[in-house]
Every structure is written in structure tokens, then in C-alpha cells.
Amino acid sequence: MTSNESGSDSIYTPGSSTRRIRNHKSIPTIGILEWFRPGEYEQVERVLADLQTLGIKHLRTQVSWADWLAPGGEEWYSWLLPRLARNVELLPCFVYTPPSLGIAPKTSSPPRNPKAYADFLDVIITRFGDCFEWMELWNEPNNLREWDMTLDPDWNIFSEMVGGAAYWAKHRGKKTVLGGLSPIDPNWLRLMFERGVMAYIDAVGLHGFPNTYDYTWDGWELNVAKIRELLDQQDYKPGLWISEVGFSTWQHDQRRQLQEFVKAIEAQVDRVYWYSAYDLDPKLPTVDGFHLDERDYHFGLKRADGSPKLLFRLWAGGGIEAVQDTAWLGRSPRFSGIEEQPVLITGGAGFIGTNLAHRLLESGHSVLLLDNLWRPGVERNIQWLREIHGERVQIEVADVRDPFAVMRAVEGASQVFHFAAQVAVTTSLSGPIHDFEVNIRGTLNILEALRSLKSPPPLVFTSTNKVYGTLENIPLTLDGTRYTPEDRILSSSGICEEQHLDFHSPYGCSKGAADQYVLDYARVFGLQTVVFRMSCIYGPYQFGTEDQGWIAHFLIRAIEGQPITIYGDGMQVRDVLFIDDLVDAFLLAQSNMDTISGHAFNIGGGPQNTLSLVELVDLIEELNGQKPVIRHDVCRPGDQRYYCSNTGKFESMTTWSPKIGIREGVQRLYEWLLQSRGVYPTPLAVKRGAR
């Protein structure tokens, strides 16, 4: 994952150039491929809305012959085709034999009567011909999954079926595309010429899935050249389309998906249809069955839950040019040419990681960021760092759940800061398995990679105050606008590391378990490790949400004139720590590792920097000139009414102490947020932001 503890996810320096412009190759018409199952009315609307966001006017989708004859099929397509045609130029792909009409009872079977396919197309043209100009005849006929060539070994039935359908479609005034070749095989296409099929074909479709299914991939330039050579030999000039291309992010590689998209749209063809808009719903089977091949489920521009991947975010934010301009992503650190051992920051594209990286880079270090770029906005963080620091900051787009990627990153590191995590309590409640895999397994991957090295670098790990649970056993009194512990010593000093662990929520469990693993690897295996149990961190370059980064979230809502939701009565108290002070603590931890290794430290602003939610609202009113609109909701699982870090242990062992008070820190964040929106040009935040 990509986020940092107690912070949110984006960094942006207003007024800076965030895109490197280069001369782009001319690109073909670009469309999206999305298969819809009967009854997916809401999904159709979601896809159409996304296409509008991306500025895409071309959509390829299937029209299943089998579904047409199934109960409800005619009703479905009677709605679907006109609905799509109102918004996009539609390319229907006519595929899938009704099992009752096949030589064998399956959708990949050749039909017993090849003419029946043309009859089906004739019905569709008669009913819905106004909805489309082009028709694609079958899908991947040289792929066993789509056409069972064991029942038609010489493609005689296919040739008769498609040749007749193409003739009739042309007779009815339609243009035809020969279903996409997968694999791209000139010999198969030559057979179609010999059988006379190509006489009525206006465009040839090619399919490719580089490094997903096509492991011996030769690249689009060579594959397109092979087909064009054959077409030249036949003295035939149809259109040449990439009617299906995609890359599965099943191993969380969003950079590679972006790169393969750019390669496809820069191929010398007339059209490109990218597969697909959405990942497949993990609860549904594919053509081959239920999760028989995990790659099948991860081709989307968006995940099944609707969250956008990097390619979609760049495309939506800056168009195709922004997608093509990806020099800011850097290259694999193995090829960087930098001799110095870099400092490794996992989750380094998030708020905390980016601030730390900037400080390290300013002091002369090189930095390697390992991040899967999962969270929206983190791409801007990397752009900013690359523009300022160039090749000294390298990006490894990978996930901490991938042990091999982790090992590659750890091997050459001089220091390791492990921030990558699933960081929201609410997210852990909806997806506890995901939370477990990222926070526990990801951390174990880091630790095991370190343990395998002869001279492992020291590790700083960010945990959370949520390891102490809800702290319901601490008696509290209401003191004006805040809760205060009845125990005077606790009130004046805060909660120390001797507080018993009490994991509450899947997030607390996963971070607490990871916390203990990090400490145990110091005890048992002799690694140099330190755990920071952090309270609330805030500062410039933070874009908060309700789940994390609540100070930034409150400020953003107030600046934008949006209501703020407070869960509970608003008297909850937290100690808050400005980002610069946290970075100081990180650097001190690494420099004092010989004496502090194996320890956990509570890190926050301490008793002198505590704040309740309603007190923050009052401060925002002072800064913004008007009181925010407040809404209340019930407390959430794991919420603490009071938490304040006793930072005495870390202070005594390192001489660290917070330097930036609440009023100064909140004002600096507020002014930076204003400036990031272009409100005024030279705020204090820019002068005194991340050092």
C-alpha cells in the first residue's frame, strides 16, 4: 500500500511545473472495451460516466448470441444497445454460440448450422442497426477459450460462418471487423484470405496482453509489421485495429499498466480499444470458471469497488498527454546508475514519506521510494520530488505484499523506513483480510528481507496509538471543551509505553501485530529496529480524510465551504505533532539506533500540544473568518475519547522534543492549503514547509 501513518496522501507545490512536455507520436482513435453481463444496468451507467470523464467516445462490447436466446436476453439488449449508442460510437462484438445450437453444448463451440450466425446478425441489424456502424465478427477465433478449434481443426466452419456473416453485413450496409487475432498469427490470417473471408472485411483486429498472457511478446511495432507485410502481399488495405489490449495489475504493478497503455496507443494502427473499464467482480466467475486464473480479475482502469488506478487518475486529470508524460516515474533502481546506497522508504509517496524523502534529499542522500501508487494524489508527490531532486530519487512501483520486490529494494538500502500500510480503521472494518495482508504480511516481508542480509540496514517502523485500544479504562472528566484524565499525573504527562496493549478493530490488531513482530525481530534475530507509535501528524503537503489526517480534513472542508462531520460530541482530545518535528524524530532514531534498537516509542505532540475537535473548529473559525458548519454522528469503533503521548522515553534517549506549537502549525498548514488552491501567492507555509 502507499499511505503513511496519521497522514494522508498528497503533496503538491503550487505554481511548479508538474509535467514534462515532449513531442508525442500521433495516436490512433482510442476506445474502451467493457463486457456487460445481462442485468448490469448500474454498471453500464458507471462506465458511461467514466468514459465522459476521460473524454472517450468509442466503446467495444459484446453482444452474446447465447445470451440473446436465453431468458431475458432480448429485453437486455433492447435496453443496452440504444442506451450505449446515445453516448458513444459503439462497436458490438458478436460472439458465443448458444449451447443448444453448437456441435458441443458450450459457447465456444462452432454452430451446427453456420448460417444461423448470419441470421442472428440480420435480426440485430434489423432491430438495432441505427445504434452502430461497425460490427465485429467473433472474438479471438484462434484462441481455444473463444473458438474450440478441436471441433473445427481447419477453421472450415468458422470460415463459412464468418464469411457468410460478413457478406450479409456488408449487404445490410454495415462495416465489418474480423474478430481479434490472439495470438497475432499471420499464417492464420493468410488462411482467411485463402478461404475468401477477407473479401468482405473492412478492418482486422489484433489482440495483445504483453507480460500478462503474452510472455514471448515481440512488441507492437514488430507484430503490426508482420500483419502489414501479409496485407501488402495480398494487395489488400483494410483498417488495422488493436481491438483489445490490456495489462493485469494482479501483482499491483500500476506503472507497468501505464507503460503498456502508452506503447499500445503509439502503435501504428487506426484504433485501439483498451481492456477494460473495471476489474471483474471477484464474486463472479470468468469464462473459464471461478478464480481459476487470478490475472483475469485485474485489467480495469478502476478496481471493482470503483476506486481509480493510476492510469485512470492521470488520464482523467490531464488527458492522454499526461498519460504519455511519465518520465517523473523514473526507472527501476537496479538501472539507476547511482552508486550510493539509497535510503529506502516504503509507502514513500504518501504525506509522511514524501516529507521525509525531501529532507533526506536536501541533506545529500539518495532515496528509493517503494510504493504501489494505490492512493489518489500520490503521483503528484513523486512528480514534485523528481522535479526538485531529479535522479537522486528513484521509484520502485511495487507492493509490500510482493516479497521479491521487497527483497530487491532492501538489498541495496543503507536505511529503511517502513511506512507502507493500510491506515484507516473504517477500511479495516470493511476489508479486514486486506488489512491483514498489507499490515502484517507486508511488514513480515520487510523483516524477512532484512534478516536474509549479511549486514541488514536499520529499520524505523511506524505504528499507531490504536494499539492501546479505546482506553475506556481511563477515567475522564469533561473540562469545558475537552475530556481530561482524572489522574493528574496522566493528565500532565500523557500515556507511556507501559500502557497495556489492547487491539480494538482489525486495524488495531494488524498494526499491533506488526508492531510486535518488529520488536521481536530485534530481540530474536538481532535486527536493529525501532517502533514509533504515532499520534496525530499534520502539516503542509497533507490532504486529509475523515479516516486520517483529521486536522487537514477539517481545514479543507472549511476552506471549501463544506460541512464537517464530528463523530461523537467533539470533546475528544489528541496530541498533535507537526510534520517537521516528526521528521526530526525519524532522523534521530536512525542516528541513535545503536542505543535505542528494540524499543517502542510513543510519538506525538505531548501534553503541551493537545487539542479537542471543537477547539480545532474554533481555531479554524479564527483563521478562516467564519465558523464551519458542523454535523454530528455516532462514535466509530476504535475511537478514543482521549489520547496524549508521553514522549519522555524518546526525549530522554535522543534529546528530541517538539518545537512547533499548535497555533503556528495549524496556521502553516492552513496557509499552504490556501496557496495550493491559488488563493494567494507567498504563504508562510511555502517559506517554512518541509525542510
What's the arrangement of secondary structure elements?
Blueprint: E1 29-33, H1 41-54, E2 58-64, H2 65-69, H3 73-85, E3 89-95, H4 115-128, E4 134-137, H5 156-171, E5 175-181, H6 186-194, E6 203-208, H7 220-233, E7 239-245, H8 254-265, E8 271-275, H9 310-324, E9 343-346, H10 351-362, E10 367-371, H11 378-389, E11 393-397, H12 403-411, E12 415-418, H13 425-430, H14 432-451, E13 459-464, E14 476-479, E15 482-485, H15 488-493, H16 506-525, E16 529-534, E17 536-538, H17 550-559, E18 564-567, E19 573-578, H18 579-591, H19 593-596, E20 599-603, E21 610-612, H20 613-624, E22 630-633, E23 642-643, H21 648-654, H22 662-676, H23 684-687
Parallel strand pairs: 1-2, 1-8, 2-3, 3-4, 4-5, 5-6, 6-7, 7-8, 9-10, 9-12, 10-11, 12-13, 13-16, 16-20, 17-19, 18-22, 19-23
Antiparallel strand pairs: 14-15, 19-21
Helix pairs in contact: 4-5, 8-9, 10-11, 10-18, 12-14, 14-16, 17-20, 17-22
